[in-house]
Specification:
The complex is a heterodimer of chains A (about 775) and B (about 220). Chain A has about 775 residues and is α+β, with helices and mostly antiparallel strands. Among the domains of chain A are: about 180 residues, no CATH class; about 140 residues, no CATH class; about 140 residues, no CATH class. Helices cover about 65% and strands about 15% of the residues of chain A. Chain A has 25 helices and 20 strands. In chain A, strands 11, 12, 13, 14, 15, 16, 17, 18, 19 and 20 form a ten-stranded mixed sheet that branches. Chain A starts with a helix and ends with a helix. Chain B is of the alpha/beta class and about 220 residues long. In chain B, helix 6 links the parallel strand 7 and strand 8. In chain B, helix 3 packs parallel to helix 5 and helix 4 runs antiparallel to helix 5. Chain B has a single domain, classed as 3-Layer(aba) Sandwich (Rossmann fold), CATH 3.40.50.300. Chain B is globular and about 50 Å long. Classes of the chains: A alpha+beta (about 775), B alpha/beta (about 220). The structure holds adenosine-5'-diphosphate and magnesium ion. Magnesium ion binds next to helix 1 of chain B. Chain A: Pfam families: FtsX, MacB_PCD. Chain A: Its main location: membrane. Chain A: This is ABC3 transporter permease protein domain-containing protein.
Chain lengths: ~775, ~220
């Protein structure tokens, strides 16, 4: 009965109900959507880890790369539990995959699980297992492929014999997985390495997931603000009802219970809706997230989402917690309300001038904290704390800064309507401030992330032009073909530059050592961030190595320092080169030295310098009999790299749109709940001779002006954000540092979208005002109150 | 020709029990410089009639004429123009612009109408006892002070027709009398037609005419 009386309020205030449910639904959806994305990605890393090792197990490898297969038999005889692996990149059908060859009888349990439901006979006679998405990507191929969720995306699991044949590794293996305790004495020429690919990916991708979680939490908080204001308003409007019910003898306890029940009901409805929306959102975003993770870290994340009940329960719990948090204050106030409290005319959420002063004080304190963190802090956490403090400070400062702008505008205005426009905007600022803060955050985030990505793109394109100087590259099928190709090409082109590498742990980080031929191509074009004197001559003279920026920054190694290379001991660092888009550490030594350090390393690619690429291509195709697929020309390579780059930052675009939408929704919610109050403020102007159309137009104009001012304020904040992202977060997360560049055209585009979002948020109340004609305005005067 | 003429006005409002007829054939006219008092019980439709005269409320039947201009023939913008330049309105309440100071409120309509005269405005403020309150905001004023601002605002625009809904309702008797006297003086001096709702028979007695609204008709 009591509940019925309470719920009847919502039937009369449908818009308010819609706002409340929408806020809670959106909060739950964004939070649980982000959680679903994180869980899916982490699950994929675990799959990748399980496939190549038992929990935390190590592997045995040779510093020089491959191992003879005979070693496996030897070790097994000696009672060491190991299993051989042959792996390598391989072109299959329409794509490149990692061909992972294992020995099914001795392989660790994770691998066995992948095989469990398959056809072992087919596997042993040349079949493979791959993730359904990879199977689809490969398309038609000679190999019989069985789809399996237990294989990471981009990998084809085959029998070791199949892999050795395909990769041209007769009697050779890549490494040995340890499936039991480590041997007491390490066999000659072998060393232990941590093989936990999952943990490796976890470490590399942590910052990305931290980013996503931070975004989810921000969205959740904004959603709760919407709920909080709707619940608060509903409470104020029902004060009278509460008093009536209480004076009719309804005990306070039942009334509070009824209100709590009402809140729980809303949480349930919105929670379920939010889960559905969150799932749809996550499913829609996952391909972008997967592309980003693959592009940045090479992490094998599938693009299709799986449902998990634990996730659903956690999401519902968040909805209840959120409703409790947002509605708790209302319940508390009800509990403390005297039976005959006078109706308080105080509006529900008017932030007074005093509140604004406190906001400014808070903003200054946070700004000081950000400054201290910026000067003295180090590490990823300090970077994020700096970002959070600076953003929050900027958000808190927004209302005061806008008030100042509006006050100055009012001073300059001459026409009465214009003067009123500014004064009225300023008066309504406190009520809009929360939503404007959300807009400020969204815009600053957009500018910051957008500038970061655009700066990155500009640097990346310049870098690609320098790095991709070879007119074409050829990928040989195996080591034998590589030798034949080199011999074939040497007389036909200006230069053939082979690419060879061995995987290696450098300064404790996973990475690889590369061979570089001493050639003008590199001397003239290869960009270096820092170089020792005569670095190229000394590199050619085998006096040291070049390392990539990631390694340099993470390990703090610069020219003048030394780095340990497998088999070579500590060597001098001669220079540091930028290496974007690659998460791993790299070192480069000159080719001859490389060949002595790591004999028999197969050539993976040949870069070709030639004046006549067309003729070279024709020769390779006609005379040598290479397939067109094995040849990549410079333009193709650039296009491919750029495409990977664009895919890498797809998710940032999607997140930017989402944050802007949340801010627009918060504004919409605020403007709708305020529209009743607005009527009282607008009615006198209507009576004095402004038309409803003019008033509606002014409402829209106000939204645009506030969006424009917020955008102007967001610019410096966004640039600071970009600077922190480029100079602190990126360096920590990826290991590279880029110069900040400015792209005003992007700002214009963002300003356009922000204006559009503001227009969308204010369109409905304005349209209602316009359509209502004078009728709702007249009611302000007609009823005696 | 009268300044303002209402002819056979009919108006009813929808309610839960069907339409309620509030005005059932009301006709009246106000001449330049004439002061007309409108009395009637609470709920008899006085405010409604004023709103109709100001072109705020549409009628079911009948005509509102300003001079020869038929209100119904005007588009929305034309009616707004009329309210801006020709009509002055004093409502019972909720009539000040909350975001503007008292001074700005006083001058607002006059400036909208393009008839602002700073000296006249200052004089009005002094005579209404508002001189010390000019930089305050409406929410910082008492009900009576707000009402005087509203009256001043309408007078400052020097309208041809002034429609005032219980303008002295919130004022004590002495202040009410003084304000009423001021309105009368200015109306007569400027040739303004004044239609005034009041409960006070004493004030109605000082007007040129007094008309009484009962059961939707003038008595
Ligand atoms: N917008 C409206 N909708 C419905 N009824 C209304 C409206 N405006 C006024 N009324 C009704 O019309 C009648 C006359 O109101 P009003 O003109 O304010 O009376 P008065 O000013 O004489 O006290 C009242 O019964 C009032 O409830
Ligand atoms: Mg009335």
């Amino acid at each position: 009965m009591t509940l019925q009386a309470l719920l009847s309020h919502w039937a009369r205030n449908k818009m308010q109900l819609a706002m409340l449910l929408a806020g809670l639904t959106l909060a739950t959806a964004l939070w649980s959507g982000v959680q679903a994305l994180n869980a899916q990605a982490r699950g994929a890393y675990a799959t990748a880890a399980a496939l190549v090792s038992t929990d935390g197990a190590a592997r045995l490898e040779s510093p020089s790369g491959q191992l003879p297969q005979a070693l496996f038999v030897e070790l097994r005889r000696a009672g060491v539990l190991v299993s051989p692996v042959a792996e390598g990149r391989f072109i299959m059908g329409d794509t490149r995959v990692t061909l992972l060859g294992i020995e099914p009888l001795t392989a660790p349990p994770g691998t066995a699980a992948a095989l469990a439901d398959g056809d072992l006979q087919g596997f042993l006679s040349g079949g493979g297992y791959a993730h359904p998405e990879t199977v689809a990507q490969i398309g038609a191929s000679d190999m019989a492929l069985t789809p399996s969720q237990a294989v990471p995306v981009g990998t084809v699991l085959v029998d070791i014999g199949t892999a050795q044949t395909a990769l041209g590794m007769a009697d050779q293996i890549s490494h040995l997985m340890l499936t039991g305790p480590a041997p007491d004495a390490m066999p000659e020429g072998l060393r232990m390495a941590q093989a936990d690919a999952g943990a490796e990916l976890d470490g590399l991708t942590d910052s990305f997931h931290l980013n996503l979680t931070a975004f989810g939490a921000l969205a959740f908080a904004v959603g709760l603000f919407i709920v909080h204001s709707a619940v608060g308003l509903a409470f104020e409007q029902r004060r009278g009802l509460f008093r009536t019910l209480r004076s009719l003898g309804v005990p306070l306890r039942s009334l509070t219970l009824a209100l709590a029940l009402e809140l729980a009901l809303m949480a349930l409805i919105a929670g379920l809706a939010g889960l559905g929306l969150g799932y749809v959102m996550a499913a829609a975003l996952l391909p972008d997230v997967a592309a980003t993770l693959r592009g940045l870290y090479g992490a094998p994340v599938p693009g299709s989402l799986q449902f998990s009940p634990v996730w659903a329960l956690a999401g519902l719990a968040m909805a209840f917690a959120g409703a409790g948090l947002a509605g708790g204050q209302a319940l508390w106030r009800l509990w403390h309300m005297p039976v005959l409290a006078p109706a308080q005319p105080r509006a529900w959420a008017i932030a007074s001038g005093r509140a604004m002063r406190w906001q400014v004080v808070g903003a200054l304190a946070l700004g000081a904290l950000a400054f201290v963190l910026g000067v003295f802090g180090s590490g990823l956490f300090a970077g994020f704390a700096l970002l959070a403090a600076a953003l929050l400070a900027a958000a808190l400062l927004t209302p005061a800064a806008l008030a100042l702008c509006l006050r100055m505008a009012a001073r300059l205005a001459r026409a009465p309507v214009v003067q009123w426009f500014w004064a009225d905007s300023r008066q309504n600022l406190p009520r809009l401030s929360l939503a404007l803060m959300a807009l400020m955050l969204a815009l600053a985030a957009n500018i910051g992330v957008g500038t970061m990505v655009a700066s990155f793109r500009a640097t990346f394109i310049g870098w690609l032009d320098q790095r991709l100087v070879a007119e074409m590259t050829v990928t040989p099928r195996d080591a034998a073909q590589a030798r034949e190709l080199e011999a074939f090409l040497t007389s036909r082109v200006d230069a053939v530059l082979p690419l060879r590498r061995v995987d290696a742990t450098l300064a404790g980080q996973p990475g690889a050592v590369y061979a570089m031929r001493d050639h003008a191509t590199f001397r003239d074009n290869w960009p270096l961030i820092q170089a020792a004197a005569d670095s190229w001559d000394r590199l050619a003279g085998e006096q040291g190595a070049l390392i990539n920026e990631q390694l340099a920054r993470r390990a703090g190694l610069w020219p003048g320092d030394r780095v340990a290379l497998p088999g070579a001991g500590d060597v001098a660092i001669l220079g540091v080169y930028p290496d974007y888009g690659n998460p791993l550490a790299q070192a480069i030594v000159t080719e001859d030295w490389f060949d002595r350090l790591y004999p028999d390393t197969p050539t993976r690619q040949l870069a070709i310098r030639t004046d006549d690429p067309d003729a070279t291509r024709a020769a390779l195709l006609d005379e040598f009999g290479l397939t067109a697929q094995a040849i990549t020309d410079q333009a193709q390579a650039k296009a491919l790299s750029l495409a990977i780059f664009e895919r890498t930052f797809l998710i940032t675009g999607a997140l930017n749109v989402l944050t802007l939408s949340v801010a627009a929704l918060a504004l919409f919610a605020t403007l709708v709940t305020l529209s009743g109050l607005r009527l009282v403020q607008l009615a006198p102007l209507w009576a004095m001779g402004l038309t409803v159309r003019q008033l509606a137009g002014l409402e829209l104009a106000r939204a645009l002006v506030l969006a424009g001012l917020t955008m102007v304020l967001a610019l410096p904040v966004g640039l600071m954000l970009a600077q922190v992202l480029l100079a602190v977060i990126n360096v920590q997360a990826f290991g590279w540092r880029l110069p900040l560049q400015i792209f005003p055209a992007d700002w214009a585009r963002l300003a356009f979208w922000a204006g559009l979002a503001m227009l969308a948020a204010s369109a409905w109340p304005a349209w209602r005002l316009w359509r209502g004609g004078g009728e709702p305005l007249l009611r302000v005067f007609a009823y005696e109150r | 020709m009268s300044l303002l003429a209402l002819k056979d006005i009919h108006k009813s409002f929808a309610s839960a029990e069907g339409p309620v007829a509030v005005l059932q054939g009301v006709s009246l006219a106000v001449q330049a410089g004439e002061v007309v008092a409108l009395t009637g019980e609470s709920g008899s439709g006085k405010s409604t009639l004023l709103h109709i005269a100001a072109g705020l409320e549409p009628v079911d039947a009948g005509q509102v004429l300003f001079g020869t201009q038929d209100m119904a023939a005007l588009p929305d913008a034309g009616r707004a123009q009329l309210r801006r330049g020709t009509v002055g309105l004093v409502f019972q309440q909720f009539n000040l612009v909350p975001s503007l100071s008292v001074g700005a409120n006083l001058a607002f309509q006059a400036r909208l109408a393009g008839k602002h005269d700073a000296a006249f405005c200052t004089d009005l403020a002094a005579r209404l006892g508002l001189a010390d309150l000019l930089s305050r905001y409406p929410e910082q004023l008492s009900g009576g002070q707000q009402q005087r601002v509203a009256i001043g605002r309408a007078l400052a625009a020097r309208p041809e027709v002034l429609l005032a809904d219980e303008p002295t309702g919130n004022l004590d008797e002495a202040t009410g009398d003084a304000v009423f006297a001021l309105m009368l003086e200015l109306a007569r001096a400027q040739g303004t037609g004044l239609l005034l709702v009041t409960h006070s028979a004493r004030l109605a007695g000082q007007c040129d005419h007094a008309i009484h609204l009962r059961n939707g008709r003038l008595a």
